[in-house]
Amino acid sequence: MIHQPIFSIMIGISSFKNHQEESNKLTKFCLNLEKTKRKDIVTSWISKNTFNTLNSINISKLENFKNINNFVYKEVDAFRKTINYTKPLKVSGGWINVYKKYDFQEYHHHSQHHLSAIYFLNSHETCAKLFFKSPISNYPNIPDPNQHMPFTWQDVRFKPIQGNLIIFPSYLNHCVEQQENNKTRISLAYNFDA
Question: Which one, 27, 59, 113, 116, has least CB within 10 Å?
């Protein structure tokens, strides 16, 4: 019998070698923004306390994010070639997410876009994990998960390792579990379109 995997999902994971230098500058910027703009930014998320600049401050247009943005764009371009997107993709927006104790982000997707990316700017491995949900997880009679067979997994969890970039198809449901400690978790998120 031949076993042919179909409908698999590819994600990309990359690490920025100049992370620490950029993180030192941008973490202060993000925390100051969170402190001064929290009242001005209205979110439609269920998690009202989680601060984000989606639809208000586009980090892809900010000069101080240039080095990290360029890293993200380069990695997304390499990833799109790997998964056979033949047309180049352009960033359509980027934003900041700041998670403090008890903050979270419910399951959602960015399916109006092609690819999305999350960069961990400031975090600790004990901070809230990023979850991806299998697109087949809501159906009855699915196989039991087997740790050696990724096609059977119901979800995949990533520790927020500083300097890591996660690239994924925008239709993939993802969330951030509730932050249980007093550490601050800052991520940068991006969407890309043809």
Answer: 27
